Amino acid sequence: MTFPLERVLIVMPAFNEEEVIASVVREVRQTLPGATVLVVNDGSSDATTDRAREAGARVLELPFNLGVGGAMRLGFRYAETNGFPVAVQLDSDGQHNPADVPALVALLDASEGSNGAEGVDVVVGARFTDGDEYEVRGPRKWAMRFLSSVLSRAMHVRLSDTTSGFKAHGPRAIHLFAREYPAEYLGDTIEALVIGHRAGLRFAQLGVTMRERAGGTPSHNPLKSAIYLGRAFFALVIAFLRPRPKTGVEL
User: Are 203 and 127 in contact (CB under 8 A)?
Assistant: First the structure.
């Protein structure tokens, strides 16, 4: 089974991204013709919704800011309700290159067994691979390395970038995450991996390139990076202490 772009939903959580959302949506539509672009306005107070619609995206609006996890859960529900077998999470600030999407989706295709090969349900677009010049320093870098080491051992798969927000999800992942996706801080990365693993999803990663923000304000500074370190450890502990998900992944 293959997944043409016409069956792919690009989900872009967006919070106050009026400066860049239109150009990012246009680039995604031009690079991935046929794919459907869904912007989830995560309680923005600016003109994010108007700019996204003008650029050709479908838009859902949350009444207040829930964070990436809450926005993505709504995106998964939209994908399942509207019959999309693949949902790809993409940043709305232009840091993710939409040209990498077909390679991520292709690994999901293999998981459907058109050639008898056993593939995966979630493909993580991993930074810090050969050829990628994206750098993270200080506490944030230490936290990322620690989390990747612990989660790789626990999940029995090599994941070098467990906080990546660039991921492709197949049908079983959409079915699970439409109901079980965590909305807490860092839940969309660390906890989602643990929930998926415990529910039987299969994971893999693929190297991607990261770009500079196309505009707007970066979400991280030295203080936020230090806070991130503490929250990352806390999120990891909570993820493993939570009960196993009630939702099965068999289709």
Answer: no
Listed by start position, the domains of the chain span 5-241
How many residues does the structure list for the chain? Answer: 251
d(CA 124, CA 144): 14
Instruction: Give the C-alpha separation, 135 to 141, whole Å.
Output: 9
pTM: 0.84
Instruction: Please report, for residues 15, 42, 71, the alpha-carbon distance to residue 63 in angstroms, rounded to integers and kept in the order given.
Output: 12, 8, 11
- According to CATH, what is the number of the domain 5-241? 3.90.550.10
Predicted confidence (pLDDT) per residue in 38-63, tens digit: 999 999 999 999 999 999 999 999 99
Tokens of 139: 């506490």
* Model pLDDT for residues 131-146, shown as the tens digit of each residue: 555 666 666 677 777 7
Binned average pLDDT, 10 residues per bin, the chain of 251 residues: 89 96 97 97 96 98 93 97 97 94 87 54 83 62 78 86 91 94 78 89 90 62 63 69 63 52
Residue 63: half-sphere exposure toward Cβ, Cα within 13 Å = 0
**Residue 124: both structure tokens together:** 């993580």
**Selection from 232, 248, 250, 129 nearest residue 186 by Cα:** 232
CA–CA dist 124, 176 (Å, integer): 17
Q: Are 159 and 148 contacting, i.e. CB atoms less than 8 angstroms apart?
A: yes
Answer left, alpha or beta for residue 94, where phi above 0 means left and psi between -120 and 50 means alpha: left
The radius of gyration of the chain's CA atoms, rounded to the nearest angstrom, is 17
- State how far the Cα of 209 lies from the Cα of 95, in Å rounded to an integer: 9
